[in-house]
Amino acid sequence: MSLRHTLSVAALALACVSPALATQVAKDSLVREHTGNRISEHVPALAPALIERLERYQNTRGASLGGWTGEGCLLIATRFAETQQAHRVCEPMGMREQLTFHREPLNSLDAAPKPLDGFVFGKDVGGNEFWQLHWFDLATRETALLTDGKSRNQDARFSHDGKQLAYSSTARNGRDIDVWVMDLATRKTRAVVAEGGTWSASDFSPDGKQLLVIKYVSASETYPGLVDLETGKLQLFPVDGGKAAISDFRFSRDGQAVYYVSDEILDGKPQEFASLRRHEPASGKFEVLSAGIPWDVGNLSLAEDGRHLLFVSNEDGIGKLHVLSLPDHRELKLPALPIGVIGGAEFSPDGRRIAVSINTATSPSDIYVIELTTQRLVRWTRSEVGGLDAGRFVTPSLIRYPTFDRVDGRPRTIPAFYYRPAQVPAGTKLPVVIQIHGGPEAQSQPIFNANAQFLANELGVAMLVPNVRGSAGYGRTYLGLDNAEKREDSVKDIGALLDWIGAQPELDAQRVGVYGGSYGGYMVLASLMHYSDRIRAGVDVVGISDFSTFLSNTESYRRDLRRAEYGDERVPEMKAVFDRISPLRNARKIRAPLFVAQGRNDPRVPYTEAEQIVKAVRGNGVPVWFLMFDDEGHGFHKKANTDYFGAAMMTFWQQHLIGGK
Q: Are residues 15 and 114 in the same domain?
C-alpha cells in the first residue's frame, strides 16, 4: 500500500471517530509532501481515469484582445503551452503567430500607436504581482525592460503620437502607486503624480502636453484630475455630490472636451448607475450620452480619426456594444453580436473597424471584427474547446431568489446564474456547487466556465453562481450593502440560496458544496462557519481567513484600499467586528470537509491566511486538504498547476459531495 493511499484512508477515517481521537489521528498522520513546486497535505493520489476525463476541458483556451498593430493585425493573448503569451493574427481565422515565449504569463498587453512598431507587456515572477513593463519591437523581435525590475508597474498608456508612455508604479517608496511618464526615445522617466494613494493615467491630450489621471480610493470613490506635463501642476476636478465612482476619462480628439463615465448626482438626484458623460470646460456645456440605459456603462474608447466612440453597457451581466458617431452622438446600427460578456473593444488605427473580445457561456473568449461602413461582422479567432462537442455545453439561466431583507416592502432578490445538467432522469436529485466570486466588488457573469461544464456534463452536478450583495453591476446601493460592519449580510444571502435550493425538486439540499477564491474564499469559510449543517464540503482558494491578520500582512500598497472596503482593523469597534466574524476565530464551527489551495507568492492574501485556517479546522477532526504552489500568487496561472488543482478539486467533490447520501 502506497504512502499516499495510507494517508487518504486515514483522512477519510476521521469522520468515523470521536473529535478528540480524530484530532490526535490528524496530528499523527499529517505528512507534508513537497513535489517540485507543489506542496500538499492529505491530497490523495489522483485517479488516472479522472485526469483523462478532465483533460479535454482543461485544454480549452480563449483569446483576449491586446489591440491593433500599425499594419492592421490584431495582438491577442492566448496560451498554446504552459502560460499565456502574446500572439499576432493578421487576417480573419488566420494563423496565430506566437511572439513571446516566457516561463511566466503576461498579465497585460498594449499595442503601440503609429509610428511605433511594437507593444508593451507586463510580467512578474511566480505570481508576486511586482509586474515589470517590457517593450517588444515587432521589427527586430527584441525585448527590452522598461521599468526598474523591482517595483510594481501597471496600467500602461501611450500618448497619441507614440512618444510617451504613462504608467502606474510603486518605484518612489514601495507603498504609494504614483503616475510616471517615460520618454520612449530616451527611456527617461519622471513621476508626474506623487500625491500618495493609488493613481493611474487615463489619457494624454492630443498634443501630448496634458494627462488625465484618476485617484482610486474604492469601487464607489474615485477622484479625477489633470496634470500639466510641462509645469507638473495637478488640478483636481470637482466631484458633484462630493463622492462618486468616475472612470474612463478620455479627451475628445480636438482636445476641447472630455468624455467620462460617472455615477455623480444629476439635477440634485443620486444616481444608481454610472453613465457616459461629456463636458466642455471652456463653455461649460454638459451632456449625458447614455441616459436611456438603466445599467452601468464602461470600456470607453475613441477612434483616432475622431469620428466615432464606443462604450459597453453591462445589462444584467450581459455586455452590449454601443457606437456613437461624432460630433452628433448618434447611435449607429451594429450587426448582431454573440450574446455574452465583452472583454474589450478597440478601434483600428484608421477608425474603420472595431475589434471586440466576446466570451459566452458555451464558448471561450474570441475576437470578432465589425466593419463600420458595411456593418459586417467577421470572426477573426476560433479558440479550441479541447475537441469537445460545444453543442453539449450547458447555457446557464438567470434566476433571482429572495433573501432575508426587504426593499420597498418586498423581499430583496439576489441574481444568480444556474448551470443545470441536461438530460436529468426523472426523480433525480442533483448535487450542487455554489461558486462565489471575489472582489468583493466583482461580478459573476455568464462566461465560459470549464469547471461548470465538467461538473454538469461529466459528474451530473449543478452549479449556482450568485451575485450576493456587494457585487458590482446592480447599482451603487447594492454595491455598498456589505461594507464594514454589514459584511456578514452577504453570507446571509448564501443562507437564502440554501433555502432556495431546498425548494427545488431537482436539487439535493443534502449535497451542497461551496467554492470561491480570494474574497470568495472568505465567503466559503464564513458559509461553512454558519451553515456547516447544510453544506457538505467547501473549497477555499487564496481566501481570507481573518480580516485583521489579512490587513496586517497584505502588501503595503494595497492596505488602505482594502480598509476602504472592509473597514480599518486599527479602529477598536471595527476590530471587534472582525473578531466576531472571523472564520479563524470561529473555526470550531466549521464541521464540513475543507480543501484549501494557495499560491506561496500571493501579495494580496498571504499564504499565512491559508495555513492558519487549515491548522485550526483540523482541530475539529474533519478532513482538511491543503495544496500550495511555490511558483504562483493570487490564483493559479500556469497550466500544469491549474490542471493539478482542477483534478484535485474534482476528486474532493467526488469524495465529499457526490458520493453517498
A: no
Phi, psi values for residue 19, rounded to 5°: -55, -45
**Amino acid identity, position 451:** N
Number of domains in the chain: 3
Rounded-to-integer distance, Cα 442 and Cα 474, Å? 11
Of all helices (H) and strands (E), which one includes residue 574?
helix 572-581
440-449, pLDDT tens digit by residue?
889 999 999 9
Query: Tell me: the pLDDT tens digits for 634-644?
Result: 999 999 999 99
What is d(CA 540, CA 517) in angstroms, rounded to the nearest whole number? 6
| Helix/strand/coil for 167 | strand
| Structure confidence by residue, pLDDT tens digits, 624-637 | 999 999 999 999 99
Q: Mean pLDDT across the stretch 451-459?
A: 95
Cell matching residue 353: 473597424
Q: Which candidate, 558, 569, 553, places its Cα nearest to that of 606?
A: 553
- Beta-bridge partners for 346: 355
**Whether residue 137 is found in the same domain as residue 158:** no
Cα–Cα distance for residue pair 617/529, rounded to 1 Å: 10
Q: How far apart are CA 357 and CA 366, in angstroms?
A: 5
Provide the 10 A C-beta neighbour count for residue 268.
7
Tell me: do 142 and 155 sit in the same domain: no
Q: What's the farthest any 2 CA atoms get from each other in the chain?
A: 82
Average pLDDT over residues 211-221: 94
Beta strands in 72-193 (DSSP E): 74-79, 84-89, 97-98, 106-111, 118-123, 132-137, 143-145, 153-158, 164-169, 178-183, 188-193
Compute CA distances 172 → 30, 158, 180, whole Å: 45, 21, 10
351 backbone φψ class: left, alpha, beta (φ>0; ψ -120 to 50): left
Q: Which domain holds residue 509?
A: 3-58+404-439+454-658
Helix, strand, coil percentages in the chain from 3-state DSSP, rounded to 5: 20, 35, 40
Q: What are the phi and psi torsion angles at 466 (to 5°)?
A: -85, 155
SS3 for 276?
strand
Residue type, 649: M
**Residue 409 to residues 57, 140, 405, 412, 493, Cα–Cα distance (Å):** 45, 66, 9, 9, 18
Amino acid at 82: E
Q: Would 602 be classed as within a structural domain?
A: yes
Q: Which three cell numbers stand for residue 432?
A: 450542487
- 387 belongs to a structural domain: no
Q: Number of helices (H) and strands (E), helices first, in the chain?
A: 12, 37
Please name every residue paired with 379 in a beta bridge, in sequence order, or none if there are none. Answer: 368
Which amino acid would we find at residue 177? I
Is 0.85 topped by the overall pTM? yes
Say whether pLDDT at 25 is over 50.
no
State yes or no: pLDDT of 349 exceeds 90. yes
The answer to whether the CB of 65 falls within 8 A of the CB of 344 is: yes
